[in-house]
Amino acid sequence: MATTQNDPASSEQPKKILRVGIIGLGEIAQVNHIAMLNNLSSYFLTSYLCDASPQALAHCSNKVAGSIPKTTSNPEELISSPLVDVILICNANAFHVAHCILALSHNKYVLCEKPLALNYRDIDAILAAEAASRGRVFVGYQRRYAQAFLDAIEQVGGMDKVQYARVRDIIGWNSNFVAQSGTFPQKFTDFWKEDTDEMMLKDEEMVRYALEHDYGVTATKEAMDMARLLAGLGSHDLSAMRELLGMPTRVLGASLNPNGIWTTLFQYPSFPCVYESGINSVPVFDAHIEVYSDDKIVRVDYDTPYVKGLPVTMTVRERIGADGYQERLVRKTYEDPYTLEFLEFYRVVVANGEPKTGARDARGEVDLWRMIMRAGFPHAA
After folding, report:
1. Mean pLDDT value across residues 128-146
2. Domain boundaries of the chain, sorted by first residue
3. Most exposed of 35, 91, 105, 116 (fewest Cβ within 10 Å)?
4. pLDDT for residue 301
């Protein structure tokens, strides 16, 4: 049973505090998750930490507020512990599937950072584990929980007919923003070579299987690198695009460059959508999604999630009367998408609900990656 605590801001029944076990103590856990869970102490308590690095365990234990968490290098020890109600998975992509399935086998809800998986085989294995579990997987597509994005869904839903859409995410290196975040994360190397070798082998097998069995693409180094980028940087944009616009019918063309900027032209039933993304050395975060109709343009602008308090905004530009014009910049809240995402995760868990960004939803990512990769790379023989 989760512990409880009275909420001084509410006259309702005492609120459950969900005890969280974190697997993986790398950059995102240090920059965001641990501090955020500390701030959300009326909802969560970090009770257990797992990492292959003893130094990371010691460092992050000191960052946890409220109590000293237990630590382990064994994910199963953390997942099976009665001191843990929910699991947060933010370790290497190669282990997401195995640890999600293990959490589900213990009937626990798990928030897994994206990507959940790169191929149908692994997604379907998670869905099968869910079918036999009281737990569920909540995938960390945090941009889809931003208030401005939810507002944009309403605005776009009210359009008579979409003419055109653009999805853009061209950013500087994360290190530029992390260095200015005030969180001072550390990197540790005190783990066994065998652990690194296992991670690399699992990652290569996962990507190669996706390319050769699901995408029908020759598994060259360039194709494998591009698949990893789509599952990493690209998954936020493509997931938001799916929720806002639905699935495209096909890809008209794709120029895929894992070492620079890439672009894809999607065809929807009645309009095109351009997706452009990539990383360069200019330290700016140019990420937005924009939808055009005949008399209204709706745009959501995201900033880096590594610096707390930068708002996500919605801009609405529209025709007024015969020849008038109105532009509105809407920022309802400074609450960042990660915080809103974790509050929704809390609501889903205590209600034994189904997350909108669940495993079945994540299967749509594989559909999109397959479409993009088949358009941009030679098919396998």
Report:
1. 98
2. 18-141, 143-192+206-335+358-376
3. 105
4. 98
Closest to 313 in 3D by CA, of 326, 329, 296, 335: 329
pLDDT, residue 1, reads 47
pLDDT (tens digit per residue) in 65-114: 988 999 999 999 999 999 999 999 999 999 999 999 999 999 999 999 99
Pairing of the two strands 109-113 and 137-140:
parallel
Check residue 305 and give its pLDDT.
92
Angle between helices 359-376 and 120-131 (to 10 degrees): 170
Whole-number Cα distances in Å, 107 to 15, 101, 305:
21, 10, 31
Instruction: Tell me the C-alpha distance between 36 and 29, whole Å.
Output: 9
Q: Which helix (H) or strand (E) holds 203?
A: helix 193-209
For the residues 182-196, what does the mean pLDDT come to? 90
Specify the pTM: 0.94
Query: 18-141 and 143-192+206-335+358-376: same fold?
Result: no
Predicted confidence at residue 379, as pLDDT, reads: 82
Helical (H) or strand (E) element with 240 = helix 233-245
d(CA 284, CA 293) in angstroms, rounded, equals 28
- Residue 308 is given by DSSP the state T
CATH architecture type of domain 143-192+206-335+358-376 = 2-Layer Sandwich (3.30)
Q: If we measure between CA atoms, which residue out of 80, 90, 89, 47 comes closest to residue 65?
A: 47
Q: Which two tokens stand for residue 206?
A: 């996962």
Are 49 and 21 in contact, with CB atoms under 8 Å apart? Answer: yes
Place of tokens 């005492």: 14
Between the alpha carbon of residue 63 and those of residues 18, 38, 58, 298, the distances in Å are 18, 9, 9, 40
Segment 213-267, tens digit of pLDDT: 999 999 999 999 999 999 999 999 999 999 999 999 999 999 999 999 999 999 9
Q: Which residues contact 256 (CB under 8 A, 6 or more apart)?
A: 226, 262, 264, 372, 373, 376, 377
Q: Which CATH architecture has domain 18-141?
A: 3-Layer(aba) Sandwich (3.40)
